[in-house]
Amino acid sequence: MNTEEILEKINEILVDEFEVDAEVISPESNLKDTLGLDSLDYVDLVVTIEANFGVKLSEPDFVGIATFQDFYNLIERKIENKN
């Protein structure tokens, strides 16, 4: 799975599962502010990402994650480390 495929899949999940408007998703946008998710939604996001990409995410993984690009990079690193 290449970078573009990862990005498209994450965005698809956000739009379909979390009803985020696709137009507000951009790499430089603030992840937390844009998504407006509460703590339970974040748990759902983690579970959904883990199920779709076969990776394991933990709380320390999210330290320093501010933008969508940071999140994309995190998932891409997790996938690379898995392989």
Automatic annotation (TrEMBL):
PTM section of the record: 4'-phosphopantetheine is transferred from CoA to a specific serine of apo-ACP by AcpS. This modification is essential for activity because fatty acids are bound in thioester linkage to the sulfhydryl of the prosthetic group.
Residue numbers of O-(pantetheine 4'-phosphoryl)serine PTMs: S39
One Pfam family this sequence matches: PP-binding
PROSITE patterns: CARRIER
Occurrences of domain Carrier (ranges): 1-79
Keyword terms of this UniProt record: Cytoplasm, Fatty acid biosynthesis, Fatty acid metabolism, Lipid biosynthesis, Lipid metabolism, Phosphopantetheine, Phosphoprotein
Pathway entry: Lipid metabolism; fatty acid biosynthesis
Domain of life: Bacteria
Subcellular location: Cytoplasm
Gene3D superfamilies (UniProt xref): ACP-like (1.10.1200.10)
Described purpose of this protein according to its UniProt entry: Carrier of the growing fatty acid chain in fatty acid biosynthesis.
Sequence similarity: Belongs to the acyl carrier protein (ACP) family.
Protein name: Acyl carrier protein
Protein species of origin: Flavobacterium arsenatis
This protein's encoding gene: acpP
